[in-house]
Write a structure and sequence with these properties.
about 20% strand; five-stranded mixed beta sheet; Peroxisomal Thiolase, Chain A, domain 1; 8 helices; 2 domains; alpha/beta; two-stranded antiparallel sheet
């Protein structure tokens, strides 16, 4: 079997005032099914990608997808978590269900709500994605872990600050044209390349423009096997 994307939905990323995790999940789930042109009763399986790690008091979040429509009741729903790759892991789980012929249609949802948590707690929560016995006291938290990796890379392959700045500048430039992006501002290569009051070093060789923001947002995909997709 080959999995095909037959529907999708996406919220904006950012500090989404007035939104709840449940609301974000149910909104994109409903919109993705509408985009695919299928009813909730046609879904065979649900996969939710949600890191959490203390950001939500509701720890069992796979069930929240069922709140999108009563017809999703009793559909098997599973939450997957894989740190920064949580969304990719959720898609992989959905694809594997179709490849195994265990499902024809899978609803995959990814969601996080991070900005309602205080700064110190955010740092502690994100650091849980590292190996705490060795990295739990890393200065600058999770960014510090990546700072160490970048420093080790520089030591082996030479200063790569130019490459990092080009990557950051490219990403911010693409954000200008993306209506879902959290920061829609073109900083340019020179700003990203050089340390300044507005772009200080955060951890090792990593500056602020090299690091991602905490965010709220959700996205959903409807996956279908080839035979089903061709009939849609």
């Amino acid at each position: 079997m080959t999995a095909c994307i037959v529907g999708w939905a996406h919220s904006r990323f950012g500090k989404l005032e007035g939104e709840t995790l449940e609301g974000l999940i149910t909104k994109v789930a409903s919109e993705a099914l509408d985009h695919a042109g299928i009813g909730p009763d046609e879904v065979d399986e649900i996969v939710l990608g949600h890191f959490n790690a203390g950001f939500s008091a509701q720890d069992f979040t796979a069930s929240l997808v069922l709140q999108a429509d009563d017809r999703l009741r009793f559909k098997p729903a599973t939450r997957v978590e894989n740190a920064c790759a949580t969304g990719s892991a959720a898609v992989r789980q959905g694809v594997r269900a179709i490849d195994a012929d265990a499902a024809r249609i899978v609803l995959v949802v990814g969601a996080e709500q991070m900005t309602t948590t205080s700064g110190p707690e955010i740092g502690k929560n994100l650091l849980k994605a590292s190996y705490l016995p060795e990295e739990g006291d890393t200065p600058a938290g999770f960014a510090g872990v990546f700072g160490k990796i970048a420093q080790a890379y520089f030591q082996r392959y030479g200063d790569q600050s130019d490459a990092l700045a080009m990557i950051a500048a490219k990403n911010h430039r693409n954000g200008v044209d993306n209506p879902y992006a959290q920061m829609r501002k073109d900083f340019g290569y020179e700003f990203c390349r050089h340390e300044s009051e507005k772009n200080p070093f955060v951890a090792g060789p990593l500056k602020r423009t090299d690091c991602s923001l905490v965010s709220d947002g959700a996205a959903a995909l409807v996956l279908a096997d080839t035979a089903t997709a061709l009939k849609m």
